[in-house]
Amino acid sequence: MPAIPSHVPEPSRTDPALIRNFCIIAHIDHGKSTLADRMLQLTGVVEQRQMRAQYLDRMDIERERGITIKSQAVRLPWAPSHDKSKTHILNMIDTPGHVDFTYEVSRSLAACEGTILLVDAAQGIEAQTLANLYLAMENDLTIIPVLNKIDLPAAQPEKFAEELAHLIGCEPDDVLKVSAKTGLGVEALLDKVVEQVPAPVGVKDAPARAMIFDSVYDSYRGVVTYVRVIDGQLNKRERIRMMSTGATHELLEIGTNSPEMLSSDGLGVGEVGYLITGVKDVRQSKVGDTVTSQHKGAQEALGGYKDPKPMVFSGLYPLDGSDYPELREALDKLQLNDAALVYEPETSAALGFGFRVGFLGLLHLDVIRERLEREFGLDLIATAPNVVYRVLMEDGSEHTVTNPSEFPEGKISEVYEPVVRATILAPSEFTGSIMELCQTRRGVLLGMDYLSEERVEIRYTLPLAEIVFDFFDQLKSKTRGYASLDYEPTGEQTSSLVKVDILLHGDKVDAFSAITHKDQAYAYGVRLVAKLKELIPRQAFEVPVQAAIGSRVIARETIRAIRKDVLAKCYGGDISRKRKLLEKQKEGKKRMKMVGSVEVPQEAFIAVLSSDDSAGSGKGKK
What we know:
Layout lengths: L18 E8 L5 H11 L17 H6 L6 E7 L9 E7 L7 H9 L3 E7 L6 H12 L3 E7 L8 H12 L7 E2 L8 H11 L12 E10 L3 E10 L2 E2 L3 E4 L5 E3 L2 E5 L3 E4 L1 E2 L4 E5 L13 E4 L18 E7 L5 H14 L4 E7 L3 E8 L2 H14 L4 E3 L6 E5 L4 E4 L10 E16 L3 H10 L3 E7 L4 E9 H4 L3 H8 L5 E12 L1 E8 L2 E2 L5 E4 H18 L7 E7 L2 E8 L15 H21 L6 H8 L2 H4 L7
Parallel strand pairs: 1-3, 1-4, 4-5, 5-6
Antiparallel strand pairs: 2-3, 7-8, 7-16, 8-15, 9-14, 10-11, 10-16, 12-13, 12-15, 17-19, 17-20, 18-19, 21-22, 21-23, 23-25, 23-26, 24-25, 27-28, 27-29, 27-30, 30-31
């Protein structure tokens, strides 16, 4: 563990009046992690020789892609310039900026009293900036508007300060201008945090109540739980109780992150820190739960978080069936790190045992799959992502469909699909092409506003199924990369949806079924049978590959039979001899066709089901 500088104050009970809890929210790539780096340097909690870019991003994936996936809490000592005699304690949480990790952001906001709203001075307000701002307003947080990257030649601080002021309802002069890269203006920003963010309010002598806002699994120490103390205090070696499960544990270690773990005797009102109880069972530490003392504990739990609803489902299967128990264990541990992950076991005729996993979006799917492969050494197949449908039958029964193979047979009355309210921000010159794209994806225009002469905000209602594939890629290519997208679920609507089945030699292959809109079913069927014709090796008999809706075939390709050259030994002679040999071969093929079955190689399943070509659209998503 890196050495902690000697001038970091020992985290004993700090006077709540000197504590400031705040987080940094912004769109992806607007400089949150860089600003956090400068704050760590300025407050001296990380020595210069240990400093590295994206210091708080601990995962390899975060560092490689330059994105934040997990929120990180850190304690910073700061003596403001107007009163150097008092050292304040700033608890900062660096949050993700991507739409898929909004749940992570909402949990961080609940642990704070204030937030820094960071906007790139060269790009201006983006869709996710608005979404995070509304989240902060819902939580009644003090918002400090900041323009970052003012050292860039393309920066337009005056223009975007006006936009921000108009949005928040303050004066353009109130918007702070900083450069996280050079450190310009960061000291003034920390002073502003001390000045504007209210101190935490809590009852010191009340029974202890602390909110769990995050937790991670450490293979050596078990579950590490991150908490924000609301009332009372938690002390080392006392027994604590989790209020939702009723489980009790002994507090083996308690302390703060500075930014490495620093143990202390306890945590008081308003403090943010970690607890270690030695628990190995990941289900014992639930995000959103309230921690209290076992002896004379609190009776009433704190309000938790709304459980996130998975938006996209995908099947995860181990390439080697014997890895199934390892995959279950890996998902258990990841669920602790990522409270938004849900999964249940499922089986597939083609791929064996696996899990149906719910994600908040495509980037979330991509990151979880990569973490499973890297951190747990698993080889996985991910099936193409799909959303949840609700099917009403004519007899009044109702089915929830998370997998096309669950789509019911028989007379269907109505099919409901999830819809989202999408907000797109882009330069106004691209308005036409954005609207055209949304119309082709069955979108309904809700309205549009001009934030300034050059920038427009367009709002659409879109079916979620139309977004989860390549919508974002298409949006970026039509707007030369300038558009940004944010979406939130708004319920469901009825649609003309059908299930397209793939038949091989007359037999249905469940793994290839898909639910699509009636108008797109034909194109999907044609594309898939053409792909399968290339991937399935030729058999000794002719194999028809068909796409069908119910009993009606909508597309067909034929895999031609492999034929032995039976005429090779005929050199000259009567034609009837050749005909006899050909007829005999034809009879044999006919007999074989009646009893033969088609073996689909594993590679064909992986190529067709793998979400690589579709999920790739989530990788650079902003």
